[in-house]
Write a structure and sequence with these properties.
Number of domains: 1
Order of helices and strands: HEEEHHEE
Structural class: alpha+beta
CATH topology: Trna Endonuclease, Chain: A, domain 1
Helix content: 25-40%
Shape: globular
Number of helices: 3
CATH architecture: 3-Layer(aba) Sandwich
Strand order of the largest sheet: 1-2-3-4-5
Largest sheet: 5 strands, mixed
């Protein structure tokens, strides 16, 4: 396994633990469909949380929010549509799209409402 893959797995694990410490129940990890992948799907008692995890070893890589561009957001939304259908959630189920930035020391920054649902 290459170094980037290992770093990503460690970052997602750190993010999941961080979110659980902050009251989020993790429902899915690495949920995949033909549309794409969602790193984490959680629930905070009010809303489903669709969470993209960005692990940054170097600051020169840019911010987590910058890494989740329009095309990535569309893929995440399409994948959540599939999840919603598979779990038989209705269209009015509250959902929030968040990003968790994990830095080189595995400290997490949670960006709530990082982007809105995008239809394509």
């Amino acid at each position: 396994m290459d170094k980037r893959k290992v770093t990503g797995i460690l970052g997602e694990t750190a993010a999941a633990l961080f979110l659980q410490e902050n009251g989020v129940s993790i429902l899915e990890k690495n949920f995949r469909s033909r549309f794409g992948e969602i790193d984490l799907i959680g629930y905070d008692g009010e809303s489903y949380l669709v969470i993209e995890v960005k692990t940054r070893v170097w600051r020169s890589s840019g911010s987590a929010a910058e890494a989740v561009d329009y095309h990535k957001q569309v893929k995440i939304c399409r994948t959540f549509d599939y999840y919603r259908m598979k779990k038989r959630l209705n269209d009015f189920t509250p959902v929030r799209f968040d990003v968790v930035n994990v830095d080189q020391g595995f400290s997490c920054t949670w960006i709530k409402n990082a982007f809105e649902y995008l239809e394509r």
